[in-house]
Amino acid sequence: MVYYLSQIGRYMTEVFIDQFDWWVALGLVAQFMFTMRFVVQWIASERAQRSVIPFAFWTFSLGGGSLLLVYAIYRKDPVFIAGQALSTFIYIRNLQFALRERRANRAVT
Q: How far apart are CA 10 and CA 20, in angstroms?
Protein backbone atom coordinates (compact mmCIF):
# COMPACT_ATOMS: atom_id res chain seq x y z
CA MET A 1 0.00 0.00 0.00
CA VAL A 2 2.84 2.38 0.87
CA TYR A 3 4.41 1.68 -2.52
CA TYR A 4 1.24 2.63 -4.39
CA LEU A 5 0.75 5.78 -2.35
CA SER A 6 4.33 6.86 -3.10
CA GLN A 7 3.77 6.18 -6.82
CA ILE A 8 0.61 8.29 -6.76
CA GLY A 9 2.53 11.03 -4.96
CA ARG A 10 5.29 10.95 -7.59
CA TYR A 11 2.75 11.06 -10.39
CA MET A 12 0.92 14.01 -8.85
CA THR A 13 4.21 15.86 -8.32
CA GLU A 14 5.26 15.27 -11.92
CA VAL A 15 1.91 16.31 -13.37
CA PHE A 16 1.05 19.27 -11.15
CA ILE A 17 4.44 20.66 -10.09
CA ASP A 18 7.30 19.53 -12.34
CA GLN A 19 5.43 20.23 -15.59
CA PHE A 20 3.86 23.49 -14.45
CA ASP A 21 4.53 26.40 -16.79
CA TRP A 22 2.50 29.30 -18.16
CA TRP A 23 0.89 27.01 -20.78
CA VAL A 24 -0.44 24.78 -18.02
CA ALA A 25 -1.68 27.92 -16.21
CA LEU A 26 -3.46 29.00 -19.44
CA GLY A 27 -4.97 25.53 -19.78
CA LEU A 28 -6.23 25.62 -16.20
CA VAL A 29 -7.76 29.09 -16.67
CA ALA A 30 -9.39 27.90 -19.89
CA GLN A 31 -10.78 24.80 -18.21
CA PHE A 32 -12.11 26.91 -15.33
CA MET A 33 -13.91 29.22 -17.78
CA PHE A 34 -15.27 26.24 -19.67
CA THR A 35 -16.56 24.72 -16.43
CA MET A 36 -18.15 28.02 -15.33
CA ARG A 37 -20.52 27.89 -18.29
CA PHE A 38 -22.24 24.89 -16.70
CA VAL A 39 -22.35 26.56 -13.29
CA VAL A 40 -23.96 29.66 -14.84
CA GLN A 41 -26.45 27.51 -16.76
CA TRP A 42 -27.31 25.47 -13.68
CA ILE A 43 -27.90 28.56 -11.50
CA ALA A 44 -30.05 30.22 -14.18
CA SER A 45 -32.12 27.04 -14.59
CA GLU A 46 -32.57 26.62 -10.85
CA ARG A 47 -33.80 30.20 -10.52
CA ALA A 48 -36.23 29.82 -13.44
CA GLN A 49 -37.23 26.28 -12.45
CA ARG A 50 -36.79 25.27 -16.11
CA SER A 51 -33.89 24.68 -18.46
CA VAL A 52 -32.33 28.01 -19.38
CA ILE A 53 -29.25 28.82 -21.43
CA PRO A 54 -28.19 32.37 -20.49
CA PHE A 55 -25.99 34.65 -22.61
CA ALA A 56 -23.12 34.11 -20.14
CA PHE A 57 -23.15 30.39 -21.02
CA TRP A 58 -22.13 31.20 -24.60
CA THR A 59 -19.65 33.85 -23.45
CA PHE A 60 -17.89 31.38 -21.14
CA SER A 61 -18.11 28.72 -23.87
CA LEU A 62 -16.37 30.96 -26.39
CA GLY A 63 -13.76 32.24 -23.92
CA GLY A 64 -12.92 28.85 -22.46
CA GLY A 65 -13.17 27.03 -25.79
CA SER A 66 -10.90 29.53 -27.55
CA LEU A 67 -8.27 29.32 -24.82
CA LEU A 68 -8.50 25.53 -24.84
CA LEU A 69 -8.02 25.61 -28.63
CA VAL A 70 -4.85 27.70 -28.23
CA TYR A 71 -3.65 25.28 -25.55
CA ALA A 72 -4.44 22.25 -27.76
CA ILE A 73 -2.58 23.79 -30.70
CA TYR A 74 0.44 24.38 -28.50
CA ARG A 75 0.28 20.80 -27.19
CA LYS A 76 -0.21 19.51 -30.79
CA ASP A 77 -3.19 17.36 -29.85
CA PRO A 78 -5.18 16.64 -33.05
CA VAL A 79 -8.26 15.25 -31.28
CA PHE A 80 -8.49 18.22 -28.91
CA ILE A 81 -7.82 20.70 -31.76
CA ALA A 82 -10.56 19.23 -33.96
CA GLY A 83 -13.11 19.23 -31.15
CA GLN A 84 -12.39 22.75 -29.94
CA ALA A 85 -12.18 24.25 -33.45
CA LEU A 86 -15.67 23.02 -34.35
CA SER A 87 -17.04 23.97 -30.93
CA THR A 88 -15.63 27.49 -31.20
CA PHE A 89 -17.52 28.02 -34.46
CA ILE A 90 -20.73 26.81 -32.78
CA TYR A 91 -20.21 29.15 -29.80
CA ILE A 92 -19.69 32.14 -32.11
CA ARG A 93 -22.85 31.26 -34.03
CA ASN A 94 -24.90 30.91 -30.85
CA LEU A 95 -23.59 34.24 -29.57
CA GLN A 96 -24.73 35.80 -32.86
CA PHE A 97 -28.22 34.36 -32.33
CA ALA A 98 -28.27 35.56 -28.71
CA LEU A 99 -27.15 39.08 -29.68
CA ARG A 100 -29.78 39.23 -32.43
CA GLU A 101 -32.46 38.18 -29.93
CA ARG A 102 -31.28 40.79 -27.42
CA ARG A 103 -31.46 43.54 -30.04
CA ALA A 104 -34.93 42.43 -31.11
CA ASN A 105 -36.13 42.42 -27.50
CA ARG A 106 -34.75 45.93 -26.93
CA ALA A 107 -36.51 47.20 -30.05
CA VAL A 108 -39.84 45.82 -28.80
CA THR A 109 -39.62 47.36 -25.32
A: 14
Question: Is the CB of residue 95 less than 8 Å from the CB of residue 103?
Answer: no
Q: CB–CB of 69/88 below 8 Å?
A: yes
Angle, in degrees to the nearest 10, between helices 55-75 and 78-108:
160
User: To which H or E segment does residue 82 belong?
Assistant: helix 78-108
pTM: 0.75
Assess contact for 34 and 64: CB atoms under 8 A. Answer: yes
b or e along 62-88 (b: 16 or more beta carbons within 10 Å of the residue's beta carbon)?
A: bbbbbbbbebbeeeeeeeebeebeebb
What number of residues does the chain have? 109
Judge whether residue 8 has pLDDT over 90. Answer: yes
